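Researcher: Let's do a round of design. I'm pasting the structure tokens now; please hold your answer until I've finished.
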């Protein structure tokens, strides 16, 4: 039998590959020693009230076991082993936006572009199904489609891989974009 030490084992945060635990300040903190957090094969000692367990898989549910030593209720001179379990879930990868959009929309031609932001280099193997044809955009930033029918709605089905540079992990993404060709021609400005 042991007394409830009144300790709160809070999961301060979870990342994609780690979880951090904090020991809240309570009346009995001095009676708790040798705190260790174990998740699967990974563990961390609690130092200054904080333990960070690394080496976890992203987007995964775990049971974290918090083990510690505390005084026995029957005989306060005896130290006993105790533990507590907490359910956690690591975060998943947040897919960056490719920023696909149609530009230069005309009567019989449109151009599909993608953004050139900080994660632009992460995108590979971009494929576009447009007007029942498959186009390999690769890692390029734009692709044009011509020979289209005026005043007609078209949808581009876009698939791609995102390679996260920190881990090298590959994630598959997809999205759709629609555009309607114009019912009139826009003049092309060749020279000012």
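Researcher: That's everything. Go ahead.
Model: Designed sequence:
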């Amino acid at each position: 039998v042991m007394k409830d030490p009144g300790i709160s084992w809070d999961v301060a945060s979870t990342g994609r590959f780690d979880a951090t635990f904090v020991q809240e300040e309570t009346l009995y903190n001095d009676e708790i020693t040798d705190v260790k957090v174990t998740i699967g094969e990974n563990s961390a000692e609690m130092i200054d009230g904080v333990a960070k367990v690394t080496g976890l898989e992203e987007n995964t549910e775990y049971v974290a076991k918090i083990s510690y030593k505390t005084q026995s209720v029957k005989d306060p001179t005896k130290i006993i082993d105790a533990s507590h379990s907490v359910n956690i879930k690591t975060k998943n990868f947040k897919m960056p936006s490719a920023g696909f959009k149609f530009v230069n929309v005309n009567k019989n031609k449109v151009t599909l572009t993608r953004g050139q932001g900080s994660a632009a280099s992460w995108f590979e193997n971009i494929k576009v199904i447009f007007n029942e044809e498959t186009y390999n955009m690769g890692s390029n930033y734009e692709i044009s489609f011509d020979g289209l029918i005026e005043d007609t709605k078209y949808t581009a089905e876009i698939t791609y891989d995102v390679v996260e540079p920190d881990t090298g992990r590959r994630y598959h993404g997809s999205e759709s974009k629609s555009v309607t060709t114009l019912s009139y021609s826009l003049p092309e400005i060749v020279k000012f």
